[in-house]
Recover the amino acids of this structure.
């Protein structure tokens, strides 16, 4: 089992560098994430269309459908982040990281599993808390 955060999931959906590594985890592990990860990934897709002009709206729609399929086919299990909110807020206050990042760390801690991320700062905090972080 592994927790995937939005940064790693976006890398996979957008086909960015090291997306193949993320794909291996999706194929070989039980993968958990938070509901907000889906929103965060879709916002990255929106930015690729409107800000960076890297994707067309049609391609963005394909990315949405790919993300939706991962959830519907239970490749990724989605949990409600509210159940981790208090611990994540306290972690964010004590370490200075964002509540967003803290939520994934707490999810990994609660499941006693690893965290898959592209965020080195988040990975460092996770490591300091005894959570193995795989950086892609």
């Amino acid at each position: 089992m592994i927790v995937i955060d939005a940064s790693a999931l976006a890398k996979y959906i957008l086909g960015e560098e090291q997306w193949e590594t993320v794909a291996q985890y999706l194929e070989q592990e039980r993968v958990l994430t938070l509901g907000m990860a889906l929103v965060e990934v879709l916002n990255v897709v929106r930015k690729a269309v409107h800000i960076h002009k890297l994707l067309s709206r049609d391609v963005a729609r394909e990315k949405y459908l790919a993300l939706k399929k991962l959830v519907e086919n239970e490749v990724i299990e989605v949990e409600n982040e509210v159940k981790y909110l208090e611990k994540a807020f306290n972690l964010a206050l004590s370490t200075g990281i964002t509540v967003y990042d803290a939520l994934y760390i707490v999810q990994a801690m609660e499941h006693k599993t690893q965290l898959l991320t592209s965020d080195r700062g988040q990975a460092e905090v996770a490591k300091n808390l005894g959570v193995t972080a795989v950086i892609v």
In short: The longest helix spans residues 35-50. The chain has a mean pLDDT of 97. The CA atoms of residues 59 and 65 lie 10 Å apart.
